[in-house]
Amino acid sequence: MLAKILILLTLAMILVSLFSALALLFKTDDASKRKRVVQALTVRIGLSIGLFVTLLASLYFGLIPGRS
User: Fold this and answer.
1) Is the model's pTM score more than 0.85?
2) What are phi and psi of 62, to 5 degrees?
3) What number of other Cβ atoms are within 10 A of residue 7's Cβ?
4) Smaller CB count within 10 Å for the chain: N or C?
5) Closest listed residue to residue 14, CA positions, set 53, 56, 48, 54
6) At what angle do helices 31-61 and 2-27 cross, to 10 degrees?
7) Per-residue pLDDT tens for 13-39?
8) C-alpha dihedral, 48 to 8 to 2 to 53, nearest 10°
């Protein structure tokens, strides 16, 4: 159950990061704000990779059911 909650929280953080980058992208006029867009997208990529590794580990250890 804890694994499912962590997966859902990570998905929510990925969406927040994605939409914050989108909002910054529309407001961007100078180079410092562009840097924040890149940082927000970098956070999203890191969270996505972390989620993928967590899913693989949860499947391997049997915390989430897989196909038989």
Assistant:
1) no
2) 80, 20
3) 16
4) C
5) 48
6) 160
7) 999 999 998 988 888 677 777 888 889
8) -10
Nearest to 37 by CA among 45, 9, 51, 2: 45
* Residue located via tokens 């897989």: 66
pLDDT 10s digits, 40-67: 899 999 999 999 998 898 889 888 887 7
Amino acid (1-letter code) at residue 67: R
- The total of other beta-carbon atoms located within 10 Å of residue 63's CB is 16
CA distance 63 to 4: 9
